[in-house]
């Protein structure tokens, strides 16, 4: 895992983003897909909104995904494997980049067929504590024909990444605009943020 963590740290330091395949093994992905939450599908999830707390709005023209927040105290064992790995990554980033990241917040995510998330930045306004966005994809046998790319907008170029199982994408939440393109298959992921303060329980 240290090699993967190193490649993430290098990417973040040099470019503000990193992509690491096999952050979760095939068996770890399959175990998460087999958890009750994903088995029941979007019935157990709620429509994602835009903004925070009272300002939260549902807007299908901007984002069409469904989410289920994970609570580290009650998460299933397979989800906990992922959360613990994220915690290890935080410690690794802090040691190597001299940061003091403190915590994370993560939701399970389902994008139904044809849904998308238009170009945006993940930080809400100035008071936000989201420093790094981290998304781990859970889609077995995903290929370019399925669409669903994560598109990042960098200065002078755009980059596309397919949401393939086990892949982690991590980027600076305050700097990198990005969007999710529609897909011909349901698109599953664990979407999260690394914070510079302890997560509050606003989602749970
Ligand atoms: O699923 C992805 O590739 C990105 C999701 C995203 O941008 C978000 O939830 O803010
Ligand atoms: Fe985002």
Automatic annotation (TrEMBL):
UniProt cross-references to Gene3D superfamilies, sorted A to Z: q2cbj1_9rhob like domain
Matching InterPro entries: HIF_prolyl_hydroxylases (IPR051559), Oxoglu/Fe-dep_dioxygenase_dom (IPR005123), Pro_4_hyd_alph (IPR006620), Pro_4_hyd_alph_FE2OG_OXY (IPR044862)
Top-level taxon in the UniProt lineage: Bacteria
Entries under SMART domains matching the protein: P4Hc (SM00702)
Keyword Cytoplasm belongs to the record: no
Assigned keywords, A-Z: Dioxygenase, Iron, Metal-binding, Oxidoreductase, Vitamin C
Cofactor annotation: L-ascorbate
Domain Fe2OG dioxygenase: 97-196
Designated name of the protein: 2OG-Fe(II) oxygenase
């Amino acid at each position: 895992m240290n090699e993967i963590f190193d490649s993430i740290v290098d990417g973040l330091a040099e470019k503000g983003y990193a992509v690491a395949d096999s952050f979760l093994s095939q068996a770890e992905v399959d175990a998460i897909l087999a958890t009750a939450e994903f088995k029941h599908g979007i019935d157990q999830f709620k429509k994602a909104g835009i903004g925070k707390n009272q300002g939260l709005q549902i807007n299908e023209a901007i984002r069409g995904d469904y989410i289920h927040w994970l609570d580290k105290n009650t998460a299933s064992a397979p989800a906990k494997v992922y959360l613990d790995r994220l915690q290890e990554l935080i410690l690794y980033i802090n040691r190597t980049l001299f940061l003091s990241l403190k915590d994370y917040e993560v939701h399970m995510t389902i994008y139904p067929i044809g849904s998308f998330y238009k170009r945006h930045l993940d930080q809400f306004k100035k008071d936000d504590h989201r420093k790094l966005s981290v998304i781990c994809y859970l889609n077995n046998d995903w290929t370019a024909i399925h669409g669903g790319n994560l598109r990042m907008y960098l200065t002078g170029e755009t980059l596309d990444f397919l949401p393939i199982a086990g892949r982690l994408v991590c980027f600076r939440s305050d700097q990198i605009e990005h969007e999710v393109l529609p897909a011909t298959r349901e698109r599953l992921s664990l979407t999260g943020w690394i914070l510079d303060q302890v997560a509050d329980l606003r989602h749970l």
